Every structure is written in structure tokens, then in C-alpha cells.
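Q: Convert this sequence to C-alpha cells.
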Amino acid sequence: AKTSVSTDGKTLFINSLETSQVTLNITVKDLERIEAYGQSVVVTSNNFDVKYLQLFLGQSATAKIKTTAGSLYTIVKDDAVLKLNGTADQSTMIASNMKNLKLADFASLKSESYASESIMEAEQNAMVLAK
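A:
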């Protein structure tokens, strides 16, 4: 199969290598992580009200997510694009290309942005050493 959907506990994995668009309607409860790769497009049809949400996007995946989250953690790599609507109490955004994050309709009480996971870890280590 060129398109696969699988779940591992609270994580939904979507991967598509199709040359044409495939539409999947998936109903989930209590999801904490979405990982999308390849040419996949993930769109929430309703507001996703969760305590914790992790979004991992890579390759050419696109996600349009409407959420009310306590804590939001995103990693956007390669040519992936994330369009966020909604709010989060706390958000951490890691993106190799910040222009691929569309955040005009998103607000977070406390937010941090990094160009890579290693930069985030280096800054966190520096803060610990400075104390």
C-alpha cells in the first residue's frame, strides 16, 4: 500500500507515497501526537481540545490544525508546512524553516521557537549551567 495509517497508543502515524491525493476521514479520541510525512495532508474538521499535543511533520507533509491545547510541541522539518488555528497555554515550535509555520490565527500564553532540536537543547543546557 502506498498510504498507511497506524496508531501506537496515543500517536497517529500517516504516510502517503501516492502520486494523487488520497482523502482519509479518521475519528480519534484522546490523541496526543500526530506524525505526518511524505505528501500527506492532515486537516482537523473540528477544534481539537486536548491537554497535550505533539505535531511532527516532515518531507512535504502539510497540516492544518485547529486546537485548544494545554501544551503544544511541534517539529516541522524539510518542506513540511503547519498552519495552526486556536490557542495553547504553552507552545514549543521547532522548524528548520520558520516561514513554513503559519501562525496568524494562533495564540500562546508562553511560546518558544527554535531552528532545530539541537539548538533548543543547547539553550536549555546553557540555562541550567547559568543557574
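The chain has one domain: 3-130.
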